[in-house]
Structures are given as C-alpha cells and as structure tokens.
Write a structure and sequence with these properties.
Elements (H helix, E strand, L loop, with lengths): L1 H6 L7 E5 L3 H7 L6 H8 L2 H11 L3 E5 L10 H18 L19 H7 L5 E5 L7 H18 L2 E5 L3 H7 L3 E5 L2 E6 L1 H6 L4 H6 L4 E8 L2 E4 L2 E4 L7 E7 L4 E5 L11 E9 L3 E7 L7 E6 L9 E6 L4 E3 L1
Parallel strand pairs: 1-2, 3-4
Antiparallel strand pairs: 5-6, 7-8, 7-10, 8-9, 10-16, 11-15, 12-13, 12-15, 13-14
Helix pairs in contact: 2-3, 3-5
C-alpha cells in the first residue's frame, strides 16, 4: 500500500492529520498490566510515519498526541503519558530529521517542566531581506517590533540585508561580505568607525578621504591636524572621516588664499532633517561632503570654517 501511494503522489493530500487513539485499549487487550506500554509502542511509530509522509510528498502532518480528556486519567498513567509525549516531540525535533515542528495547545496544563520541554524555540533564525517590500515608515516600525520580540525570546538571529542602516541599527555584530568572504566583522560602531579597508568604509556609508601625513599619532591634512582613532605608522596615507564628523560654519576670516580648515560651499542638498554641503577646500583635494543639521545652513559660495569632531582612521 505504501508503495502504491508513493507512486501516486499527485493524488495525495498536502496535509493529513493523525489521531493517536486506542493504544491503552490495545495494551489491555494484549494482557499488559502497564497500559503505558501501549503508549510507548504507538509513540515509537510516529517518527517512522513522518518519514514515510515526507517520502510520499505529504508536506504537512498534524499529530494529535493528547486531549483534555486524557488529563482526567490516573496521575501515574498521565505522568507516564506526558513523559512519552515529550520524548516523542524531542525525537522528531532532532536536527538530523530537518523537520520544522510546531507544538500547539495549552502547554501549561501539562506542568512547568513538560511545558518547557515542549515549547519549541529556534536556536537560530534566518531573516533574509525580511522588510525590503515594506514602505519606509512601516518598515522601521516592523523592524523595531520584530527585533524586540527576538531579543526578548533570546533567539540568535542572522539578518541578511543590503540596507546598511538596517544592519547597523539592529545588529549586535555586523559582518560585511564581499565575493564570498568577510571583509570586516565587529560591533556596528567598530565596523562603521574603524572599517578594515576602503571598500568596507564606502559600503557602510558616505566617506571623506583626505591625503595625510602621519606623525606622532596625528595626521596632517588639508583640514589641519586631526587625531587618529587607531594607531598608524608615520608616513603618507589616506585619512577617512565620516561626513557627519565635519561642521561647517560661516567664516569671518578675510584671507583670500587657501588655508587649512577653510573652504567654499559649492552646493547644498536638502534632506529634511539633514543637509549635505559640497565644499571646495582648495589645493589638489577633491571637494568634500559635510552632513549637518538643516537649520540655517550656509549658502552656496559662502566661505566656511570646517572643524572636525573626533578622530579619523588611516587607510593604506
């Protein structure tokens, strides 16, 4: 019969339900004083049955293991039955079976320890671009709610995303992958402020790169002398800053020639809460981008003083 059914997959249902009943009656009819023997014999067939269903192409199987009526039975018999049920669930949840198992029902009726054993929680959850199809506002709210649920449940989660802001705001650890290899792994703050290379730096957000000369723990640049966020050997290099580290204010300096820390606004891009300023700092240095609050930003062609918040990272 099994072979015939397996050959007729198109005629099989996608979902079947199995009611575990009659095991106690079978044990009594067979002459066993301990009726739990019947429960054990029936339970031993459940994993075998599920493997057959899987091989036959049945996608979903519901197994009814216990009814509320069973809870009225003799305490010793009920205790044995609950122990058998928890063993069965743990068996079919074994990683080797690779089955997705969900327990349904009021588990608290079984007692604290059985409920704990039966309450299935994933040890690792994979979320692959889970919020990408949502509108911006809904996306942020959903992401926050999902993160809270997973954090409260203590579930380790692997989030795959191409949204850098999403990765930095959600993760405890961020891993940047390029061509199948991790280029940088660390906390969001570490990978953003101290990326391993230029690719990682640019991948995680806008950057300002300045030619520099390192000497005694500081970098001499077109913006003046800037401290370092990580040790670097003396000599030439490239200093990386983030646009939000730069602050541009209207200059009162009347000098006409190029000076460290002084530039001219070439363009502005209003983003609502922020504004992006494109600034020419003179010399051979390409125009730089400054991100700051959008309240009363300097106008185009305005001469500005540029100060740096924090230090920079030397990349070589």
């Amino acid at each position: 019969m099994r072979k015939e059914l397996a050959q007729a997959r198109s005629q099989l249902p996608r979902h079947i339900a199995v009611l575990c009943d009659g095991n106690r009656r079978w044990a009594r009819d067979a002459g066993f004083d301990d009726v739990s023997y019947g429960y054990r014999k029936g339970a031993a067939k459940i994993a075998e049955m599920l493997r057959w269903c899987q091989a036959a192409g049945i996608e979903l199987t519901t197994v009814y293991l216990l009814s509320t009526e069973n809870l009225q039975r003799d305490p010793d018999e009920l205790s044995a039955l609950i122990e058998i049920i928890t063993d069965v669930v743990e068996e079919i949840c074994a990683p080797a079976n690779r089955w997705s198992v969900r327990t349904v029902g009021d588990l608290e009726l079984l007692g604290e320890e059985p409920a704990r054993r039966l309450r299935r929680q994933p040890t690792l959850m994979l979320l692959d671009e889970p919020f990408s199809a949502l509108d911006t506002g809904l996306r942020a709210a959903t992401r926050k709610a999902v993160t809270k649920v997973l954090t409260d449940a203590g579930v380790t989660t692997l989030l795959v995303t191409h949204d850098q802001g999403e990765a930095l705001s959600v993760a405890d650890q961020v891993a940047v992958m390029r061509a199948g290899r991790f280029t940088c792994v660390g906390t969001p703050h570490q990978v953003y402020r101290r990326p391993a290379d230029r690719f990682t730096a640019e991948f995680l957000g806008d950057c300002v790169f300045l030619a520099c000369t390192v000497q005694s723990g500081t970098a001499e640049t077109a913006l003046g002398r800037i401290g370092l966020t990580a040790p670097a050997a003396d000599g030439p290099g490239t200093l990386m800053l983030r646009p939000e580290q730069l602050v541009a204010t209207e200059s009162t300096d009347a000098a006409s020639g190029p000076e460290p820390g002084i530039g001219t606004v070439l363009g502005t891009e209003f983003l609502g809460h922020d504004v992006l300023l494109t600034i020419d700092i003179g010399g051979d240095t390409a125009p730089i981008t400054v991100r700051q609050h959008s309240i009363d930003p300097p106008d185009v062609h305005t001469k500005v003083d540029i100060s740096v918040l924090g230090g920079g990272l030397v990349l070589r």
